[in-house]
Amino acid sequence: MFKDNLTSLMLIAVIKEKNFSNYELFHKLVSNFTHLDTFEYFIRTNFRPNLLFTNIQELPDSNYITFTIPQPQPFDYTICRTTFELKLEYDSHITLPQLLHCSTLFLYCNNIPRTLFNALQLNNNITFPYLKEITFAGYIGTSDIREICQFFSKLIHFSPNLHTIEININWNYMTEIVGQLKELVSMRYLKQIRHFRLGQYYSCNSFLHDLLKIFPNLITLRLPKSVSIFDENITTLINFVQISSMYFPQLIRLTFYGDLKSSNRRVFENNAKHLNERQQIEHPWHCTTGKESNNKYYYLSIWL
């Protein structure tokens, strides 16, 4: 069906068949595509590719990758699910090789594996190229904050493609965590964070100012429904939207969410209506409401 029409092909895969480590057999895959001009690939295999492959790299877990230049985006979990999610839970025994191929990390902050923590402290040359999202959750005490932030900061430093962070902890320590991260993490790495989600209520008076200190380049911001905003008049919410767009000039979407109560749906719909009616001429916005795809929350999104 495609052999006479296909002109470009990109293959990203994990392959466990030995034939695919043989250059000639591998390229027979595309020999029937008569009009193919470009063939790019990124292959992960447990067999060593033969020397006819131009680019071969051995991984820490004794597997191999071979690829064309420029290198296709490898193992993006949103595309082919070959990377995976890790959860550092109470009985976790996560190893460094596992973390090397993780795309999404769920970190319980009161259960950091000591061996993993020590490995990160001792190794300054490691990279987590596939890690794109970290959730930082759990209940912490004052004595835990420094060590937890040290571990968190190492992950940020070693993850060049990290773009999303969610924090879901007891909110009264949020300001201290912001201060620790600002001290421990170079702004060069903090600027790469483009999406931030907050899992618990936090005082709106200082929240945006605190967040600006560590993540100045946000394009999306997701917050829980704050009583102090939504129980007051619409002017309070408008002010919050205006301050958000002023603090984060690249911000595209500001989202509030709440559980599946009919009262939340009504509040969001009413506020969306008022916001759309009172949008600013110099900085127009548009609001949408609905139920999230996981069917857990209602949301109000302000598109800036």
UniProtKB/TrEMBL annotation:
<protein>
    <submittedName>
        <fullName>Uncharacterized protein</fullName>
    </submittedName>
</protein>
